[in-house]
């Protein structure tokens, strides 16, 4: 979709795209030929279209910038890491999202497909029956049933999106064949300029749920020990990490509704900030010929609309998504 925006003040053409989400975009059941990442492949097809046709709209096919916010930022970063995508763009902007974030990659994707099949009525454990049930279910039933496939661990850690990108088996159609971290660290060079950053108080958006579960954070702070630390839940090491988190963010005190500012910072770091910094560091190490710019958006003004739309306007700072209304 070509459209007018604040970006019209600059010499750019903005193209947005739609792609399949949920199980329609990220179902993974390779035993029956569903190898995953259909949503990412939709994006790649759109990229190819832009590359081939943008000059007809006054654009430059040799100067295409791929950008996105949140999940869009993560998708942008995934395409940066995928050799099949790289020829179709020249620069990237990742706003509040990269592929290294805790919430990006799908966990237990085959198990989710099997659970979804049962939710929509499958009575068998055979691959054929599971496949048939998934193929015959309505899009509405698949979308409604998807949330029920979340594991207890995902619910505990506050990861509400079940169907996401997966590591695909090798094949001609495969786009993502290794973990984002492995792909990022294996690249010898990423010759594309990058802008990457986050908002100062991303975690405000999480307060909608967190305030209702404040006791759970106090009783089970280990639920947001990042998996990237490779710490076994319930281990003594996990306990020590949790103790250090409580000291660092809450001065060792109980977590209560009076701790909202500190909890916001913890949720910001856990969901966005830490992985953003790690992504930027890896990119800087791998790319020596193209510039990288890192930003932190902290402005809290009239166009910080997501925060206000969710009734969180009393919290100071730039919430997740608050930057978008200064662009569009």
TrEMBL record:
EC number(s) reported in the record: 3.1.1.-
Protein's recorded name: Carboxylic ester hydrolase
Organism of origin: Phlebotomus papatasi
Keyword tags: Disulfide bond, Glycoprotein, Hydrolase, Serine esterase
Residue ranges constituting the Carboxylesterase type B domain according to the UniProt record: 6-328
InterPro entries: AB_hydrolase_fold, CarbesteraseB, Carboxylesterase_B_AS
GO MF entry, a single one: carboxylic ester hydrolase activity
Highest taxon of the lineage: Eukaryota
Keyword Disulfide bond: yes
Class of this enzyme: hydrolase
Entry similarity comment: Belongs to the type-B carboxylesterase/lipase family.
């Amino acid at each position: 979709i070509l459209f007018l925006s604040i970006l019209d003040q600059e010499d750019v053409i903005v193209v947005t795209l739609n792609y399949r989400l949920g199980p329609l975009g990220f179902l993974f059941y390779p035993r029956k030929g569903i190898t995953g990442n259909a949503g990412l492949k939709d994006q790649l097809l759109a990229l190819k279209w832009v590359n081939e046709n943008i000059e007809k709209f006054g654009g430059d096919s040799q100067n295409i910038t791929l950008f996105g916010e949140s999940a869009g930022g993560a998708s942008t970063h995934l395409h940066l890491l995928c050799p099949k995508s790289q020829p179709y763009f020249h620069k990237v902007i990742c706003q509040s999202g990269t592929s290294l974030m805790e919430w990006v990659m799908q966990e237990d994707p085959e198990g989710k497909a099997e659970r979804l099949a049962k939710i929509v009525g499958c009575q068998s454990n055979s691959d054929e029956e599971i496949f048939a049930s998934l193929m015959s279910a309505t899009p509405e039933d698949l979308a409604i049933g998807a949330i029920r496939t979340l594991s207890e661990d995902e619910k505990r850690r506050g990861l509400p999106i079940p169907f996401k990108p997966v590591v695909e088996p090798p094949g001609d159609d495969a786009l993502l064949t290794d973990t984002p971290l492995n792909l990022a660290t294996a690249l010898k060079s990423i010759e594309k300029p990058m802008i990457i950053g986050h908002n100062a108080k991303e975690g405000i958006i999480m307060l909608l749920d967190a305030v209702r579960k404040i006791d759970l954070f106090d009783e089970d702070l280990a639920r947001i020990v990042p998996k990237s630390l490779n710490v076994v839940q319930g281990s003594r090491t996990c306990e020590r990490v949790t103790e250090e988190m409580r000291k660092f963010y809450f001065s060792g005190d109980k977590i209560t509704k009076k701790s909202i500012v500190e909890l916001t910072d913890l949720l910001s770091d856990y969901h966005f900030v830490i992985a953003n910094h790690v992504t930027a560091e890896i990119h800087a190490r791998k790319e020596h010929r193209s510039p990288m710019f890192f930003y932190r958006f902290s402005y809290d003004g009239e166009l910080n609309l997501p925060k206000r739309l969710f009734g969180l306007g009393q919290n100071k700072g730039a919430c997740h998504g608050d930057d978008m209304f200064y662009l569009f």
